[in-house]
Amino acid sequence: PAPVIDPYRVWYMFALWAKSDYTWLCFSVESFVRFTTSYTMFIINKR
User: What is the pTM assigned to this prediction?
Assistant: First the structure.
C-alpha cells in the first residue's frame, strides 16, 4: 500500500520549520506545492 501522507501535518512541519523567516516560508510553500503535485500525480498514475 502507498504511504498515507497528511498534507496538514506536512504543512504544519513546514510552518514550524520556517515560522520566523519569510524567505524560508516562501521556499517551504514552493516545496510543499511541488511535493503535493508530484505525489498527486503519482496517485493518479497508479490507478
Answer: 0.41
